[in-house]
Amino acid sequence: MTRYLCTVFxxxxxxxxxxxxxxxxxxxxASGSGSDWRFLALRIGAADPPTRVPEEFRDACxxxxxxxxxxPGARFWYDPFEYANAIKGxxxxxxxxxxxxxxxxxxxxxxxxxxxxxxxxxxxxxxxILASPHRREPVAGDRGWDLRxxxxxxxxxxxLGVRPAPAATDFTRWFADRLTWLGFAEPSLGLxxxxxxxxxxxxxxxxxxxxxxxxxVAYWNFSPAHVCGRQPVxxxxxxxxxxxxxxxxxxxxxxxxxxxxxxxLELAEDYRxxxxxxxxxxxxxxxxxxxAFHDGSPITxxxxxxxxxxxxxxxxxxxxxxEPHRFAALDPREALERFSVxxxxxxxxxxxxxxxxxxxxxxxxxxxxDEVLAAxxxxxxxxxxxxxLLRAVRRG
Length: 396
Hints:
By secondary structure, the chain is α/β, with parallel strands linked by helices. The protein is 41% helix and 14% strand. The protein is globular.
């Protein structure tokens, strides 16, 4: 029986995926002989991978389109970030068909192992699903971070363990469906790719929490205990890392003191250099295959959302990539409002304002927005980000 470390990547993330693969090989031995750990990656790409990709890595890759693992409509209605997260559901469904799988771990491509993966297996208790919380304790004196986790997900989607079981099969079927149809990055509508769906895991399926604080260590949970070695680290996650400059920098803040932040950035710089070595070796990457129409014209967010609604209404183009003219007269504001109301009916009371530019608002906008906010019943959960956005528009 085999244990799998799985990931998803677009070609722009190929250097990161190779870095993850390389780190697994370093822990189990380059040949992998004598180890039951295997690497498997779902690749979202158009052309063949660069010839400079090691053959062993190439053999471990599945092509999403060739293996019919994705939904054709999702290629259009999701942007690259959303699509790369949405296809995780299909990957988990695929893993249930591998009779040799003793367990599998989805790991984001921007992770790296600095310890043996057996530490992942040590987390299993009773449940066939293991979820990774963003944090195991609150950030002292900072309510803002709690709000972030409520808005973007209690669990982090960058690490998820599954073992074969009837409940796990039920989970992968449900997960794949939700991510195919509702895997949007729309916090104002209560959605954030896979992570908000993971919030429901403990309620719907037998799920345990990963207790080891040395797994899935990232900017949101890095602590002095990691710095001094009191909490050994096995799996690092470099979400929100800016790789374009030197030294490494994050695109967001860290809930930690200055010394702890500097220690994390030192680890990030080492990771940046490892990724950069692969990037230099590989050369230019092929573009994201679903970024434009067949004629090369770009696909906007409003077009993507309009197509999604058209699919739900049974009025969609068979191949939307071939028909840019269908969107020639599209009103972006109306398309986004239609989408928001269709996805979350509770949003209908503020969708018009949410997708209106401040300059388009009438002079009475402050009173109007106050009226909309007051009309939303308290029992309806409106994410904090939506309220903040509305109030920002009000101030504008």
